[in-house]
Design a protein that fits this description.
The protein is of the alpha+beta class. The chain contains 5 helices and 5 strands, in the order E-E-E-H-H-H-H-E-E-H. Helices cover 40% and strands 11% of the residues. A hairpin with a 2-residue loop joins strand 4 and strand 5 (107-111).
Length: 151
Amino acid sequence: MPPNAVVRKNREVMSDPGEPPRSAGPSSGHQPAAPTPPTAPQLKAAADTFDLLSAPTRLHLVWLLARHEYDVGTLAEHTGATVAAVSQHLAKLRLASLVTARRDGRRQIYAVEDPHVLTLIEQIFEHIAPDGSLAPDPPTPTHPSRRPPAG
């Protein structure tokens, strides 16, 4: 691919603004563009998110809230933590925008609404077996770097 070529999201390659686009797929003889590496701010934000979720009680709260809306008292009952401890965890999760809250009369009702967080929580518990070991891998495609060329 020419050094000044631009790869668009729809996989078209433009080497000159006046030239018609051509596919970057295997049929054109070009290799697909490598994914853009994460930026330093993305890596920091991701590490901070995983750090927040590394506390078992917080992870349990997010798992519960990914399935249902709860108030702090009910969350304390489900996790076995005190109301004060759960409130502290929820404050941190809300600051990170992992958990949302809404008023229902005098109570705050908490939930996870971000589809990315929902997917992350679902995936981690599909990956970890109930005994804490890694769950057997489902029959899924291999890593992209080890897949045979298409075509």
